[in-house]
Specification:
Blueprint (H helix, E strand, L loop, with lengths): L1 H36 L1 H14 L1 H20 L4 H28 L1 H8 L8 H16 L3 H7 L4 H53 L3 H28 L5 H23 L1 H23 L1
Helix pairs in contact: 1-2, 1-8, 2-6, 3-4, 3-6, 3-7, 4-6, 4-9, 6-8, 7-8, 9-10
Length: about 290
């Protein structure tokens, strides 16, 4: 069926093409760093990049398999699509934003305690790339909206723009500022990419600034507050063993963050209580059997 083939190729070429372009983008920086700055600097940069992108890679790997077919099913219901998009963004932000902000704030004690002085050159890149990883994680479902909304070509356009930005500025960034320059460039490109992707997404879901503030505001506010408390607590435990101080601080931050979310986010509170109730019923049922 030539008509079907033409439609599938017209849609699929952008999905495949953008994937190839993104692969080029994510490997281009490694190539330039290795060639210009050397293998040792590439090691520091690769370590920082991997750590900073853990929230994005782990979240996108799971959500990417679920969100595209889910968005496709409700693409004709604008209210449902908008509600699901921002609800997903809110839940993703509740996990990714505190991890990224905590990583940025505690990059130095994290690396110095767990990896030692020789990995110190990775501290600043890790902090800068933490911004990059956070933007990627929060924007993880925008590409699925493009595809579900019948605009896969936007994926290609955004990837081409990113490739052009990296292609123009990457070499001078590495040459004059090393891995810190590359990290600054990656962070700046990720922020611009998020803004442009949000603008394009709004062409489909018709979201407002208020929608974005509701989705991202609570996680950002709670994360900043918890991080401030964590830095204060860690400073007062600096004389203790570094690893113990780091673990105690992490436990304090996770607990405080969970309390804040449960107190002030009614949706998450209802979700958690519902899960606990179902687990309780399941446990009672198994005991009765």
């Amino acid at each position: 069926d030539r008509a079907e083939v033409k439609e599938l190729l017209g849609y699929g070429k952008h999905v495949v093409g953008s994937g190839v372009l993104i692969w080029l983008i994510t490997n281009l920086d490694n190539t330039f760093v290795g060639r210009v700055a050397g293998e040792e600097q590439l090691g520091f940069y690769g370590f920082a990049y991997t750590q900073a992108n853990l929230p994005a890679t782990q979240i996108s790997r799971i959500l990417g398999q679920v969100l595209f077919p889910a968005f496709t099913k409700i693409r004709d219901d604008l209210n449902a699509l908008r509600r699901t998009f921002f609800q997903t963004m809110r839940y993703v932000s509740l996990v990714s934003i505190p991890v990224s902000i905590g990583m940025i704030a505690f990059a130095k004690p994290f690396i110095m305690t767990l990896y030692g002085e020789k990995w110190a050159p990775a501290i600043v890149p890790l902090q800068l790339l933490g911004i990059y990883g956070m933007m990627r994680a929060v924007a993880v479902n925008m590409g699925n909206v493009f595809k579900a909304g019948g605009k896969p070509q936007w994926l290609t356009y955004m990837a081409l723009l990113r490739l052009a930005e990296m292609g123009i500025f990457l070499y001078p960034a590495v040459l004059y500022h090393g891995i810190i320059g590359v990290s600054v460039l990656s962070a700046a490109v990720s922020v611009l990419d998020f803004v442009l992707s949000a603008a394009l997404t709004n062409q489909i879901v018709h979201g407002t600034l208020t929608d974005y503030l509701r989705a991202l505001g609570p996680a950002t506010l709670f994360s900043l507050l918890v991080t401030a408390v964590g830095l204060w607590a860690y400073a007062h435990m600096a004389s203790a063993h570094g690893l113990i101080a780091l673990l105690v601080t992490a436990a304090l931050m996770v607990t405080l963050y969970a309390v804040l979310v449960m107190l002030f986010d009614s949706d998450v509170r209802a979700l958690v209580l519902g899960v606990l109730q179902r687990l309780d019923r399941a446990g009672r049922g198994s005991l009765e059997d």
